[in-house]
Structure of Lipase domain-containing protein:
Amino acid sequence: MKSLSAFVFLLIAHAALSTPIEDEFELTRAQERALYPRYVQFGEATADLEAPVDYQLVEEVARNPRNTAYWLYTRRNANRYQTLTNGDERSVRNSNFDASKETVVVAHGWLSNGNTEPNPAVRKAYLNKKDVNVIVVDWRRLAMSDYATAAAGVPAVGQGVGQFINWLHNSFGLRYENVHIVGFSLGAHIAGNAGRATRGRVARVTGLDPAGPMWNYNRNRLQPTDGVYVEAIHTDGGYTVGGLGIGSAIAQVDFFPNGGISQPGCLTNMCNHNRAWELFAATVTHNHLQGNRCSNSLQVSWNNCRGTRLMMGNSDLRKTGSKGSYRLDTGRRYPY
């Protein structure tokens, strides 16, 4: 009886010491365990989905959003970024930021930083196409940690990005209807959380193969209400789970190039996964890939979708389309 009382006391003590972030993430991780093996390969890197999470780091990022850097590129400084600091008006006034122009915010994925893809490809495609502000989100402080810690910190990073956009709106007159947030892999869920922090007022949110491991049951994942128009491009999802991306529809409009599982010319999951940002960058330049709306997931797999047509990706800030899933086929080489 004494041992039982001690056990109950320990449970209560642990619950009292646990943070909301920890409670929520560990519950999600428990739900996800049946969907993936413990170890998932992201190219040459291995994600241990059962690794202990560094909640001290996660909460530090949550408390201090300045752990995330914002790099501004414009046509006047297309190759050398200017750092914008949330709350520091001088950093914006001394930069080339123009609140009257469209603003594209780009978030990278795990084990990446502001210099790695998809940031250069998307930045160059946009600046060659339109005179816009491109703000690259460098969240390497968390992204370079193990996958479980990075995933646990995604909501805090995304909320910080959203607060940064809100600050640009309140302090400099940036209009939400001029903002497009783009994110790849874990960055797709950052994009969703950022849009949510603006109360879904940004014009577009685009998730590029939103990360799958730890996200199928995660309520902090990309959602249809995160922006006025929310789109996801799935390239390594598996029929239900098993790929590096989520295989099911999670946005207002979900595109499944080549069925959303494997891509022409790819032999690995990482190649399939990366194809999402490669396709998106190509559509910003060429706006040439068009999908047909599907009635169900079987039509996506069997490639017999005959519904309304909609362009995938592109740079149209006012883009709209019938909600649902779309299938299209692409080539194996740029521009696909």
Summary: Confidence is low (pLDDT under 50) at residues 1-18. The longest helix spans residues 147-172. Residues 2-328 form a domain with the Rossmann fold fold (CATH 3.40.50.1820). The CA atoms of residues 3 and 9 lie 10 Å apart.
